[in-house]
Amino acid sequence: MDGVLNINKPAGMTSHDVVQLARRLLREKRIGHTGTLDPLATGVLVLCIGKATRIAQYLEAGEKEYRAIMRLGVITDTLDAEGRVLETRTYVAPDRGSLLRVMQQFTGSIMQSPPAFSAVKIGGVPSYKLARQGRAKPNKPRPTTIYSIDLTAYEDPLVSLTVRCAKGAYIRSLCADIGDALYTGAHLAGLQRTRSGSFGIETAVTLETLAGMAESGIVAAAVTSIDDALAELPLIELSTAEAGKVIHGNTVEYPAADRGPDTRRGLVRIHDSMGRLLGLARHDGITIRPELVFS
Asked: What is the pTM of this model?
């Protein structure tokens, strides 16, 4: 089986747990996910199956959307509700206007430090392993992008947010940073990923549903084809001769009929004349260079 499966991950399971269960249910070893969700978090976890594991990096790069609940006044070592409480602060509850002003400071291109309890590797060792041993050091800030933060509800000490962000953003760190800026301290109390790239929570399949579909032999109905999973990328159709060259890794000319001043450079899907997906390629408006080719 080759394709992409949109899972609604329950709380309490790691992303690896979900992958392992999917491997057993689908009897397929080649399954991987496109972006870790912490055990506390629920929601969209995109799994790549079979040949689709080759496109995981492209799907992982997509925009993410989250619904988060931030708790003011309490700081934990993991920056979320599952951690050890380090400090409980007495504070004057900020008004809604103050919240909005501070949130705005963390939108756009920002520098963000990954949590000590994260999978970021330090000297080849995951940071969370060092943290559990009491040997964690502050992770170096790295660039990321927060496209928007919307305040959806506020009843002190709980703040509900909707966050749109790029790959690599940590909502735990975002909540902690907002808490620091408010002088209240804060941690992430709840998190649901509602979108990853083109995959939304409304089409995500629960593990219970997946188990039932596997037992009935109808899992394919929940699997998105590789081509459809990449549908947000522009499409270029090649002739039989051009397709033959691309399959062997050769560069071909960008179709003259598709050239124009508004041609978007970058990554594209490539089809043969029969409409079959050949793979992915990079183009500069003049030539097409294959980057990933399916046999």
From this structure: 0.89
